Amino acid sequence: MKTKKEVFRSYLVNLIAVVLLFALLLVASSQGLINRYISGIVMTIFINIILAISLNIATGFLGQIALGHAGFMSIGAYSAALLVKYAQDGMGVTLLVKGVPTAAGTAWFLISLVFGGLIAAFFGLVVGIPALRLKGDYLAIITLGFGEIIRVLIENLSFTGGAQGLKKIPKLATLNVVYIVMIVCVAVMFMFIRSRHGRAIMAIREDDIASEASGIPNTYYKVLAFTVAAFFAGVAGGIYAQYLAVLGAANFGFMKSIDILVMVVLGGMGSITGSIVSAIGLTALPEFLRQFSDYRMLIYSVVLIVVMIFKPSGLLGTYEFSLTRLIDRLFGKKSNLPAKAGKGGAEK
Q1: What digits encode the pLDDT tens for the residues 129-140?
Q2: What DSSP letter does each residue of 106-142 carry, written as one string?
């Protein structure tokens, strides 16, 4: 069990690392080291980190296979995009000046992310209440069907742009702001999993019957986890919409949900840091392989197969990487921080 001093030290080390990364991002941007191509990769990494961790809450920590995560992402994306378009066109708010977001633009960007997340969470609640009474393949099929229903509705509704897509979305997403949003989302999800609610969710994953016999309201926590996961998927969708400035239903098909699930499985179902590592790796790897354009996807697929054969639990399994533990090992200090705690993998 960690003492208060160890907890404070761990938070301080992580905060310093986050600030240093942000300073590095600012310096790289100011020196022109980040061009549009690199900026696009980094932005996609930030979005995928939020998506992977949010799905890990439902799939890894709760243990329920969900195949419709892209549906919640699309709801958040269109909700946020329609809100900022209304602010710009309907209310006459100046969101951009020469392509750069104004203070009002940044404020509306943040408001739209919360709005998109709440709308996605509402749909997560509506889908989760009946769907989470089922298990295994049945839940996967229902969430898959939900994702496809959302995609078809988007293609046939006039206010979403229909099959032609939603265009002229204010491009309010900037690297610096999105980095901060990503850090806040990761921190909130990490604290949620480490709270008593997260421990209850992991107890359900380990033994559904035993957890209910212990007094844990299983249905409540299943729906809670599913709703929280949907909320952050909606936030990621809002960022995605205001970075691309154009949306199409095809961007949120079945394969997008599979891409997110692959990140979760590869990183480790039950590891937040594993989801971060896999999101970075699986986003950057195809870009590094562009010089082998003819064999790029083949190499990508082979790498995934090899990893899953030799490490079926994922890169980190249920292990959580700790900067504090790494520093202690580098300086030869004995650490009291365990890599994982029992079957649940929660760091004590």
Answers
A1: 888 777 667 788
A2: HHHHHHHHHHHHHHHHHHHHHHHHHHTTS-HHHHHHH
